[in-house]
Amino acid sequence: MVLKDMKGIIEVLFEFVGAINNMKLYSNEHPQVLFRITCLYDKLTSLFENMTELTLYILNDRVIVFDEPLPVPDLMGQSFINILNENGIERITLLRGLTKSELNSFLNELASSSNNIKATKHIKLGKVIFDESVEEDKLAPDKSAELLSFKYKAAAELKRIYLEVKGNKIPDTAKAKKIVGEFVKIYDQSISPLDILSPIKSDDEYTYVHITNVALLTICFADHLGFSGKTLEEIGIAALLHDVGKMFIPEEILKKPGPLTDREWAIMEAHTLKGAQYIGQQENIPKLTMITALEHHIKYDGSGYPLIRKNWEPNIASQMVSIADVYDALRSKRPYQEAMKYEEVIAILKEGRGSEFNPVLVENFLTMIEA
Questions:
Q1: Spatial distance between the Cα atoms of 53 and 169, rounded to a whole number of angstroms
Q2: Which end of the chain has fewer CB atoms within 10 angstroms, the N or the C?
């Protein structure tokens, strides 16, 4: 998220709190109330020129946007949190196309603290949970809270690492190592791997939340297969950095909402080589990371990309990342793609045994997630 967007979101939050506070003091037709609603609507309209939706949610008494704490003054942030808490809301998503009358009605309900606020076509409300298809109490409360906090922090930290690469800075690999280490401490095999996956709500956050999901799922998978210690750590780091080559691909291709042209596909496919070349030039990054960056789109039968010599067998870490990557991509809802049902995703993995995926790994992966 660029600085301009962050500034615009802070202004939206300021106008949001101001509108609610004035609506609690004055009638709906008071000039001050009408002025505040107009200011908020104008700020949102400006913001939606660069994004299709805005999701704000509460985590550990912080206002979070795109998986990062929003740097707002404590008083304003607490006021926003209080408004949501009074109405039993943890997450608000505002969508492009929101009308002024729709916004006005929503603000009126919030100001009255009706506790019976309904979502609308362009305003979605909810709780902060692991996955929108998973019951909130499936994990023990302490593990649930710890994992939830960790997941969003991990995605935000991973984003910073990837943006360092994009900015031609040497990434701090100690951060990646710390993410893996902290997750290994929290995770145990009594937790379903599906409960650790974060829902992806917007195209803006897709890249980093998806990569985080893939990495955490791969670590669970490696643990399930019996890897431990330094080997497990290196697999985790490789999974976290496997898509670093995408930082060298133009954003208009990465975020294109429709099918890519042949030329665009050729550029996109180059991210595996670019990622491997970049990692190979860095010090203190395990060799396995470079291998996984290169191989994660090579299929079990040797097809895929980049083109390789005959009888090349991808490293087991690359094969695990490939399975986790496809699983999370298919189960994720995106602005231009509905999430597949669990049964459909499983069917695709089974169908790919022996061609796209290592059949033994697929069987172990299915055993892990269905346990």
A1: 30
A2: C
From CA 261, how far away is CA 50, in angstroms rounded? 24
> H or E element: which one contains 51?
none
Question: Diameter of the chain by CA atoms?
Answer: 75
- pLDDT attached to residue 76: 86
User: Residue 362: how many CA atoms within 13 Å on its side-chain side?
Assistant: 19
Q: Does the N-terminal peptide bond of residue 306 adopt cis geometry, omega within 30 degrees of 0?
A: yes
Residue with tokens 């929503």: 106
Predicted confidence (pLDDT) per residue in 129-146, tens digit: 433 343 333 444 445 556
* Cα distances (Å, whole numbers) of residue 62 to 72, 77, 113, 281, 283: 9, 7, 21, 38, 36
Q: What is the pLDDT of residues 131-188, one digit of tens each?
A: 334 333 344 444 555 676 687 778 888 888 998 898 887 777 888 999 999 898 888 7
Q: What's the half-sphere exposure (Cβ side, CA atoms, 13 Å) at 111?
A: 21
Cβ–Cβ under 8 Å, residues 94 and 53: yes
Q: What is the CATH number that goes with domain 141-370? A: 1.10.3210.10
Q: Is the pTM of this model over 0.85?
A: no
Domain boundaries along the sequence of the chain:
3-126, 141-370
